[in-house]
């Protein structure tokens, strides 16, 4: 099973919305993945064992695993492309 | 809980005249603190967080900001709404080197991580609704602004 970290600055607002989008996305596409919501500051310590970072905020550092900026889910702009990008990483 | 439950009449500000982002943070945080919604550290924390993790969102034709900070500084949940007489400069959430000119800001006072999904989804829908946003920005008074928000 794949593991996705969904992060925002405080782990409280935008990541909540993005978490539900990603949950729906993986459900609709029958992807076997677990989603963990966290603060971006926690990502560095949680990246081991995870496959992908989906963030709504700027990345303060570089990570060992791929990271996708997902502000499109907040603005509603280009969400289809974003969906595909996330799915591609979880294939 | 629905989005409308988070709006408080005393925390709706129409057409405020602020010099910059920090003056806006001062004005709204001071009011929220005086009403007991936030702890005294809230103001500095929300400013600091905006520097590290900006919350400006550039939509197609307008800019929005959703400043917020950690749950521990919020006593009672609220969403404070402000429109600006002159656009206030924020940095972009996805790229802090990009500026966003903001006419409408929602300060989120949330203290229950992961639990306000419904309200947050409604808020994200609201900021994407160009007609509604234009209506909010052109409201002449906080009463009118509140009426449009609760419509």
Characterize the biggest β-sheet of chain B: 5 strands, mixed
SSE arrangement of chain B, N to C: EHHEEEEHHH
- Mass-distribution shape of chain B: globular
Number of strands of chain A: 4
Kindly describe this structure:
The complex is a heterodimer of chains A (91) and B (151). By secondary structure, chain A is of the alpha/beta class. Chain A is 42% helix and 23% strand. Chain A has 4 helices and 4 strands. In chain A, strands 2-1-3-4 form a 4-stranded parallel beta sheet. Chain A is globular. Chain B is of the alpha/beta class. Chain B has a 5-stranded mixed beta sheet with strand order 1-4-5-3-2. The mean pLDDT of chain B is 94. Classes of the chains: A alpha/beta (91), B alpha/beta (151).
Task: Give a brief rundown of this model.
Chain A is 42% helix and 23% strand. Chain A is of the alpha/beta class and 91 residues long.
Helix and strand arrangement:
The complex is a heterodimer of chains A (about 90) and B (about 150).
Chain A: E1 2-8, H1 14-28, E2 33-39, H2 40-46, E3 52-55, E4 67-69, H3 72-75, H4 79-90
Parallel strand pairs in A: 1-2, 1-3, 3-4
Chain B: E1 12-16, H1 21-34, H2 42-52, E2 56-58, E3 63-65, E4 78-91, E5 99-109, H3 117-128, H4 130-137, H5 142-149
Helix pairs in contact in B: 1-2, 4-5
Labels describing this entry:
heterodimer; A: 91 residues; alpha/beta; 4-stranded parallel sheet; B: 151 residues; 5 helices; 24% strand
């Amino acid at each position: 099973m794949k593991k996705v970290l969904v992060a925002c600055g405080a782990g409280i607002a935008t990541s909540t919305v993005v978490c539900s989008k990603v949950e729906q996305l993986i459900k609709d596409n029958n992807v076997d993945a677990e989603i963990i919501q966290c603060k971006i500051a926690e990502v560095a310590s949680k990246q081991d064992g995870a496959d992908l970072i989906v963030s709504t905020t700027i990345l303060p550092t570089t990570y060992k695993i791929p990271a996708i900026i997902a502000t499109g889910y907040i603005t509603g702009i280009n969400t289809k492309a974003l969906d595909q990008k996330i799915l591609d990483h979880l294939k | 809980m629905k989005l409308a439950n988070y709006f408080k009449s005393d925390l709706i500000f129409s057409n405020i005249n602020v010099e910059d982002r920090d003056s806006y943070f001062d004005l709204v945080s001071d009011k929220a603190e005086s009403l007991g919604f936030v702890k005294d550290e809230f103001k500095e924390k929300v400013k600091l967080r905006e520097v590290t993790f900006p919350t400006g969102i550039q939509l197609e034709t307008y800019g929005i900001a959703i400043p917020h900070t950690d749950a521990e500084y919020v006593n009672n949940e609220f969403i404070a709404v402000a429109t600006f007489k002159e656009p206030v400069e924020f940095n972009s959430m996805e790229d802090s080197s990009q500026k966003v000119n903001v006419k409408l800001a929602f300060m989120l006072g949330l203290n229950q991580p992961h639990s306000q999904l419904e309200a947050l989804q409604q808020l994200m829908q609201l900021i994407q609704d160009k007609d509604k946003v234009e209506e909010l920005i052109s409201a002449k008074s906080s009463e009118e602004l509140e009426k449009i928000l609760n419509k």
